[in-house]
Structure formats: C-alpha cells, structure tokens
Amino acid sequence: MGEPSKNQDALEARIPPTCPASISQILSQAWHHDLASLKPLLDVPGRASVQEPTTGETPLHAAIRSCGPAGAGAVDLEAAKSVLEELFFNGAIWNDVDSKNETPGCVAARLGQKELYEMCVGAGVRAELLFGLLEGYEELESMDEDGDEDEEVVDITDAADGEEIPDLVVETNSAGQPTEKPTEEVQRSEKKAEEEETEILESNPDRAFVPPNAAEAQASQVESAEYLRSNLTYSAGKLTDASANGVMMAWETSIMRLSVDSLLPEQLPGRKVLNIGFGMGIIDGMFAATKPSRHHIIEAHPDVLSHIATSPDCKFGPAWESSAAQEGAYKVHAGKWQDVVPKLLEAGETYDAIYFDTFGEDYSQLRMFFTEHVPGLLEEEGRFGFFNGLGADRQVCYDVYTKVVEMHLSDAGMDVAWQEMDVDMQGLNEEGKGEWEGVKRRYWTLNSEFSFFFLPPPAPF
Ligand SMILES: C[S@@+](CC[C@H](N)C(=O)[O-])C[C@H]1O[C@@H](n2cnc3c(N)ncnc32)[C@H](O)[C@@H]1O
C-alpha cells in the first residue's frame, strides 16, 4: 500500500480498535485490496456499504485512501480498481460522507487518484440515473461544509487554479442543474439523507455513523414554497432570503456574461429573449444591452417583483415595458414559470435565447422545463442555457451531475455543447468571509472551473 500522506489517512485512524469486528474485517480487506477475502464478506446485502461508527469510513473510502497520494508509492492500482468494481457491483454507496465530510470520490480527488475518481463518478452517474428512473428525479447527497480542515474539495489534477479538470472538458452530444444557488436538490437530499440516516441508525448497526454536520445541513434546506413566502433583502452585491441564503450574488456576473455570450454569440439586435428568474437582474441587463426585439422575464417572488416595479436602481420597471416598439414585447411576467410558461406557449411565443436560473427548486423542475417546455419555446436556431450549479459545493457531485444532465438533455432531443470558464475564487474560498460575508452557506466551492453549456437547436420532432 502507498504510505498515507497524513496521519488522518492512516489505517489506525480510520479503522480504530473500537470498530465492531464485522465492520472492521470488511474495511481491512478493502483497505488491503484483498479481493479474494473481501468477496465472500459481501454476500450479505448491504455489507458493501458498512460504515465505521465513528469515522464513517466505508469500504470504498478504505480502498481508495490506502492507495495514498498518486505517484507517491508502489500501489497495485489494478487491485484497488478491482476492489472498487466489486464494491460497486455489490451496491456500495458512491456518495457516503465520512467524518471529514469527504465522499470516496473526494478522497480520490484529494489524493490525485484520477482513475479511482472516475470510477466514483461513473458509479454516481449510474446511481443517479437509476434514482431518476425509480423516483422520477435525481437527488444528490452532499453535506454542508463544516469548517473542517479536510473539507475543501481539491482539483483532481492537484493543479494550480485555472488548470482544467479533464472530466469537464467540453464534449458534444455525450453527459449539469442550473441551479440554483444553495443547490436546492442537494439540500433536499441532505434532508432525505438525514431521514434515512435516522431510519438506518434505528435498524442497521452497520450504518450507525451520523455525519457531524447532518443537523446543520438539515437546517439549511430551502423549499420553493417557503422561499417564495420569505422576505428578501437586496444589499451591496447580493440578494439574500430571510435565512441569509444567497439567492444571487454579484460574483456570478462573469458567469452571466459567458451565458449571454454563449446564448447570443453574435449579439445581434432584434433577437427574442426569455429569462426565467430575475434575481439581481444581472443577466437581464446584459440581454437588454443586445437590444432584443422581445425580452420577456418570468419572476415569481413578490419582493423581487416589487424591486423591479419600484426601485430606482432597477431599469426593468413600467418605463422599460412601455419603451418597447410593440406592446408586450418587453415584459415582466409575474408568477411561477410553471404557471406562466403554458400561457406563453398558448400565445405562440418563441425565443432565440432562453435562460433558466431559479432558486429553491430541485432538479426535477429544471428537467421538466427543458424536457417539456423548451422544445416548444425555442426558435429553430435558438439556444437554451441555465445556471449550472448542480452539486457545485462538491466537485464529485458536480461532475456526476454534469454527466447526468447532459444525458437527460440528449434524451430531450437537444445537442449539447459545453463552455468552461475559470471562476475567480478570490474572496470565495472561506465560509462566511469575503463574498460570503452575511451569507449562510458557501454554495460554490469549485475553485478552478465553471462549466456552462448552451444548446444549439433541438432535433426536429
Ligand atoms: C438566482 S436568481 C436569478 C439571478 C439572475 N440570473 C441574475 O442574473 O441576477 C433566481 C430568481 O428566480 C426566482 N424564482 C424562483 N423560483 C421561481 C419560479 N418558480 N418561477 C419564476 N421565478 C422563480 C427567484 O425569486 C429569483 O429572483
């Protein structure tokens, strides 16, 4: 085995003597990549996902962790891969977090074990697609960061900021949520994870580990209906809800810029634009600067609507609406997109560019939007894009969701193209500090890249 770089990754730290023998045995065989001894132990369903009760170590964590940092020692990587394969085959859970708030994929990323990382991503994609089929939508499990020293997700290439993560390299027509700021689907899944943890704790001593920040994660959930009832505050550089969740923040301006440049590459005047979710109006300001012939905005939150209608800082009020050459060409549609879009479709509205960036909604809503509505709303040469924040608080979740969403977009008959950009992480690296001051949760931790995609025309139906 490779020498673990830090004590915290040592076998005795992860599988302490207090570990129940039946769990310790599986973890040890996984740690030592002893496939022959491990296999029979996995005959009992659920045993591939046992967790050390205090460290949360799973067989996947153990098999990856014992490899140590890539290139640092003589590790039989093939043996490690065979163990991972066997564990996944036996139902090992790809996104269990340990006491350091790391999933197996996070450990692989931190250690630079790229092949093992890719296996975790592959397993995550399969699992999330399956959940999607079984439940109708996908959920990611990802815990809040807790200020722990190991919490930061490290680029799998271990490269300096700005270097690309190979997994996210642009592809056309093969496997991102827009979303959403505090990645709602993640938060929902955290709640679900918490509920499941409780059930498991009661029924399964093999899964008695409870992540240290589970309660905190539960407390930070955002539900759409609750969000739409809460009071919002516009302050310098951000829009926050009543619980100080960041709804929209000025640091995302460069992402909005790339989005507009991708959706309207030639920036020609006279295009028809639809934006769902006004927030701080950043992207609408950019769309307006291209001088569209039609510019529709859908916004559901009463405080945002009131800001639009009355704030002297906002240029999308009544005067903007009446400045259009044609009545109704510039319009803020008040209401949830779920209610407004059917009316636009009924009215025969179509657009050259559609952007989707809501808040407090889970992935099922985004998927419904692009599957059921985008094809009818988009002009033949039109493009659709969204804020790709799915799982953005954890690299491995982001990579899994990027692939899952691409598959769903392809299923919906769309061609997918990705664009990547560096996110300037200055001021974004520390919870509660810099840009995050006054914001409850750091919903973006991807310190080197951002992937955005746009969709050239959907296939004809
Ligand atoms: C992240 S902000 C959008 C930021 C925007 N892209 C910008 O450049 O400032 C999300 C917006 O979506 C709105 N929203 C949330 N759910 C919605 C829904 N179902 N229909 C329409 N708007 C919604 C929120 O009130 C919020 O104003």
Automatic annotation (TrEMBL):
InterPro entries: Ankyrin_rpt-contain_sf, Arginine_N-MeTrfase_2, RMT2/GAMT_Mtase, RMT2_dom, SAM-dependent_MTases_sf. Keywords: Cytoplasm, Methyltransferase, Nucleus, S-adenosyl-L-methionine, Transferase. It is found in: Cytoplasm; Nucleus. Its main location: cytoplasm. It comes from the Eukaryota. PROSITE patterns: SAM_RMT2 (PS51559). GO terms for cellular component: cytoplasm; nucleus. GO terms for biological process: methylation. Belongs to the class I-like SAM-binding methyltransferase superfamily. RMT2 methyltransferase family. S-adenosyl-L-methionine-dependent protein-arginine N-methyltransferase that methylates the delta-nitrogen atom of arginine residues to form N5-methylarginine (type IV) in target proteins. Monomethylates ribosomal protein L12. This is Arginine N-methyltransferase 2.
